[in-house]
Amino acid sequence: MKNINEKSKRTVYEEKLAKNLRFKSLYEYEKYCVKKKGFKSYSEYQEHLAKKNSFESLKEYQECLAKKHGFKNNYEYHKHLAEKNGFESRYDYQLFISLKNQKNPYLNKLSNLIIEQLSFLEKDRKWLGYKLNVSKATISRYISCKIFPKKSIQSKLFRILNLPYKSLEDLL
Fold first, then answer.
1. Cα–Cα separations (whole angstroms), residue 20 to 15, 26, 28
2. How far apart are CA 137 and CA 140, in angstroms?
3. Other CB atoms within 10 A of residue 161 CB
4. Interval 143-155: pLDDT, tens
5. How many CA within 13 A on the CB side of residue 79?
6. Is the pTM of this model over 0.70?
7. Could you read off the pLDDT of 76-100 as tens digits, one per residue?
8. In the chain, what are the domain boundaries?
9. pLDDT score at 7
10. Which CATH class is domain 105-170?
11. Residue 129: pLDDT above 50?
């Protein structure tokens, strides 16, 4: 498995570029670029690009890209990318991403908010999963900072938990 501290050449280049432009991090630079283009978030920008290219959704666009590159589907494409980047399996790559996500300040804040609000409302993960139409395991992944909630779920999540946010970007 690839070392968690190893980065792709592209990531190293992008981080240097961000620092040369006096941004605290690559994430701050990407956030700036997306907002400069008039979008609230990176995911909104990705959805826009998909629709601009005549796709119904980002997922449909990603499936098409995978097939265009000669893969059966997006899953197979990501499996290939994982192996190409030095991971033995897609699972190892997902583990790497999950460990990287655990350092993300948005996910950490979201995790704490979910835990606090569920306690305050005297509800559990199963209840929240039912309200969001996702599994209890998905809620656990949000809480353990393994995955981001989809953009379509974020505002609903905050509304159900009686929080004054609309997206992850509003947290910090």
1. 9, 11, 13
2. 5
3. 18
4. 988 888 887 788 8
5. 7
6. no
7. 988 888 888 889 888 888 888 888 8
8. 1-38, 105-170
9. 55
10. mainly alpha
11. yes
Query: Tokens 């399996």, residue?
Result: 89
Question: What pLDDT is attached to residue 2?
Answer: 42
Q: What one-character-per-residue DSSP string does the chain give? A: ---TT---HHHHHHHHHHHHTT-SSHHHHHHHHHHHTT-SSHHHHHHHHHHHTT-SSHHHHHHHHHHHTT-SSHHHHHHHHHHHTT-SSHHHHHHHHHHHHTT-HHHHHHHHHHHHHHHHHT--HHHHHHHHTS-HHHHHHHHTTSSPPPHHHHHHHHHHTT-S-SSGGG--
Under a CB-based contact definition with an 8 Å cutoff, are residues 114 and 142 in contact?
yes
